[in-house]
Amino acid sequence: MTQDSTGRMPALYIGHGAPPLLDDPLWSSQLAAWAQDLPRPTAILIVSAHWESAPVSLSASGAPLVYDFGGFDPKYYRMTYATPDATALAQRIAAMMPAGEPVHQHTSRGLDHGAWVPLKIMYPDADIPVLQMSLPTHDPGRLLQLGARLRPLRDEGVLVIGSGFLTHGLPFLRDFSIDAAAPGWSSDFDHWAAEALAAGDLDTLANYRELAPGMPFAHPTVEHYSPLFVTLGAATDPGAPGEQRIDGFWMGLSKRSLQVA
Q1: Do 165 and 15 touch, CB atoms closer than 8 A?
Q2: pTM
Q3: For the chain, what is the mean pLDDT?
Q4: How many degrees, rounded to 5, is the angle at CA 177 between CA 37 and CA 242?
Q5: Alpha-carbon distance values, 215 to 77, 88, 220, 258 (Å)
Q6: Is 251 inside any structural domain?
Q7: Which end of the chain has fewer CB atoms surrounding its CB within 10 Å, N or C?
Q8: 61 found inside a domain
Q9: For residue 54, what are the contacts with CB-CB under 8 A and spacing of at least 6?
Q10: Distances (CA, A) of 174 to 70, 219, 249
Q11: Please, are residues 74 and 190 in contact by the beta-carbon 8 Å criterion?
Q12: In the chain, what are the helix, strand and coil shares in percent, each to the nearest 5?
C-alpha cells in the first residue's frame, strides 16, 4: 500500500482510454494492480477530460452514467456503475471553494466514461462514493490552484484523480488497433512529458504549447492534458517528481500515468 509519511492519500493522473479498455487485459491488469497498491479511499473525486464546464460543477449521486461515445459495441451502453451517495463530499468541496467562486451542484449528470471506465477496473465492486468535478478551465496556473484547494481532502482519505490521456491526437491516427505503433508526434510528446515529470518541472509542463514536440498533433484540443495540473496541484509538493506508474501506448496514444505524494 502506498501512502506518504503524513498519512495523506496519493493523487493520480490516469489515462482513461475508451470503453474497449475494459477488454484490454494488459492495461486493465495494470490499473487493477495499481488500485490494489493504494490505501482504500473513503471517497473518490475525479476530474475528467469529458466534462468541461465553468463554474466548477459536481455530478449528481445516483444519476445514470453518461455514455459519451459512439460506434462501440452495444454492450458498453448497457454498463452500470452504481456507487454510494457522495453528497457529503459534494458539500465538503463546496465549502472549500473561495468566496466569489460558486460551485454548481448538477441535479442529473452522472459519471462520464473518463470516470466510470477506469474506475470499473480499479474498483469493480463500486462500493466507494465517487464524485465527478468538471474541468472549469485549461489554464495550468488556475488548475494548479484548484488542485491545491483540493489537497486537504487527501488527509480525509479522498483519492483525487485527474483523468485524461497524455496524448490524444485522434484526428491524426491512421491505425485504431489497440497495439498500433505510436506516431512520432505521440512518442515525442510522451518522451518530453516523461522527462519533465521526472524533473518536477512545472514551468515546462505548463508551457507545453510552445515547448512540447508533437504539438499540436498530440493535443489538437487540450482537455485530455489539462487534468494533469489538478493532480500536480493536489501534490504535497507540486514541484517534486511523481511516480510514473504506467507507460506505453494504446492505439498509438500515450497511456503514461502518474502518482504524486
Answers
A1: yes
A2: 0.96
A3: 95
A4: 30
A5: 33, 41, 8, 21
A6: yes
A7: N
A8: yes
A9: 134, 136, 137
A10: 18, 16, 15
A11: no
A12: 35, 15, 50
Residue 179 makes CB contacts below 8 A (sequence gap 6+) with none
6, part of any domain: no
For residue 68, what are the contacts with CB-CB under 8 A and spacing of at least 6? 50, 112, 113
- The Cα 144–Cα 13 span in angstroms is 13
User: CATH code at 128?
Assistant: 3.40.830.10
If you compute the radius of gyration of the chain from its CA atoms, what whole number of angstroms results? Answer: 17
Cα 229 → chain centroid? 10
Number of H helices, E strands in the chain: 8, 10
Determine, yes or no, domain membership for 3. no
Tell me if 21 sits within 8 A of 118, measured CB to CB: yes
Smallest CA-to-CA distance from 30 within 236, 242, 249 is with 249
In the chain, % of residues over pLDDT 90: 93
Cβ atoms 47, 135 nearer than 8 A: yes
Q: Name 206's Cβ contacts closer than 8 Å, sequence gap at least 6.
A: 140, 141, 144, 229
Per the structure, the complete domain to which residue 95 belongs is given by 11-260
pLDDT (tens digit per residue) in 42-58: 999 999 999 999 999 99
Domain total of the chain: 1
Q: pLDDT tens digits, residue range 22-43? A: 999 999 999 999 999 999 999 9
Treating both helix axes as pointing N-terminal to C-terminal, what angle do 87-96 and 140-154 enclose, rounded to 10 degrees? Answer: 120
Closest CA to 255 of 76, 29, 81, 3: 29
